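Reviewers of the previous submission asked for a worked example of the structure-prediction workflow described in the proposal, so we include one complete record here. The input consisted solely of the amino acid sequence. No template or homolog information was supplied to the procedure at any stage.
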Amino acid sequence: MTGKKTTRRRSAGLLLFRTGAGRGLEVLIGHMGGPFWTGREEAAWSVPKGEYALDEEPRAAARREFEEEFGHPAPDGAWLDLGEARQPSGKTVTVWALEGDADPATAVPGTFSMEWPRKSGTLREFPEMDRFAWCTPEEAAKRLVKGQRVFVDRLRKRLAGGGSVSAGGGG
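From that input alone, the workflow returned the following structure tokens.
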């Protein structure tokens, strides 16, 4: 095996949700930052998530990534396990849901650096997520990247069926 990774990439995320607000169920998702996503709305949003090392506990990674991408710690509460899903890229994403509220206008997203424009030699910094919004499940189905839509579907089913909530927030 020359030059190929033998470990599968894994990410963990936290899907904040709320009920009420005159709209029923809503989920908090973020628009992906950087030049590739500018001007795109459909399939350009994500659950706050990120990769983690094999020796890191996935729940701890989900909590860390939420704070890095949203800029505030996740609220306290019981976590609802939404399982994992393999993405078209081959990455496996594990997501938990957490009932809570947060104001998208107060987000202070983390940043990443990349060469832009390509091959220019100029390193620029971009927000990991450039904005956040509360969305109904129907809105989220249009905005989320295809491989993450399953988590909103699972959340709806768990809430409708009185799905079990795991104790504690990990971390």
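Residues 58-70 form the longest helix (13 residues). We consider this example representative of the routine output the project will generate in years two and three.
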